[in-house]
Amino acid sequence: MKNPPPSRKRNPAESRLRILDAATRHFGQLGFDGARVDVIARAARINKQLLYHYFGNKDALFTRVLERAYQQLREQESALNLDGLPADEAILALLDFTWHYYLSHPDFIRLLNSENQMHARHLKASRNILTINSHHLKIYRALIRRGQREKTVRGDLDALQLSINIASLGFFYLMNRHTMSTVF
Q1: What is the DSSP letter of 127?
Q2: What is the pLDDT at residue 155?
Q3: What angle do CA 41, 42, 43 make, to 5 degrees?
Q4: Which pairs from 173-179 meet CB under 8 Å and 24+ separation?
Q5: How far apart are CA 61 and CA 183, in angstroms?
């Protein structure tokens, strides 16, 4: 008589991470509308019912993917050593960080593009996105104040506008590089 195969022990945290990793790749490649939950479940090596058990539905999963993507960006941004730099150089370091983050995380750009096409419906429904991003503008405000004291940053610089400009420089280029290189 053969011994039965060893039963696999469930690890919910590991399963959730595998789902989020697979969902990030799949949503990043095909957008929200093109992504399929059964493909995500198969890539995560779990059954679709378990995915629904953990995340509820495709919308909730996409929301969680977006929150996680922002969380990862903000954690790396917060880890930058900006205090050791003059404020104007620290702002340039944020610009450089953002550009390289976008280059090394193309799924992030595609996730945001997909969410923008849906008028930010998932981010609007998120209970966590404001908390995740709250420290971001504090960093910018502190650098602007410090730069004004150091006389290296304009007095009328707005933290939100600076953040938008830094994000848009990389986002616009990376989202449009294929079309722009073709038409120009």
Answers
A1: S
A2: 86
A3: 90
A4: 174/102, 174/103, 174/106, 174/109, 175/109, 175/113
A5: 36
- Kindly state the tokens that stand for 77: 């941004």
Q: What domains are defined for the chain?
A: 59-183 (1.10.357)
CA distance 15 to 23: 12
Q: Which residue has the tokens 């996730």?
A: 111
- In terms of residues, how long is the chain? 184
Task: Work out the number of other CB atoms within 10 angstroms of the CB of residue 87.
Answer: 20
Q: What is the pLDDT of residues 48-87, one digit of tens each?
A: 999 999 999 999 999 999 999 999 999 999 999 999 999 9
Q: Which of 65, 70, 10, 73 lies closest to 37, judged by CA?
A: 65
Q: Taking the model in full, what pTM does it have? A: 0.89
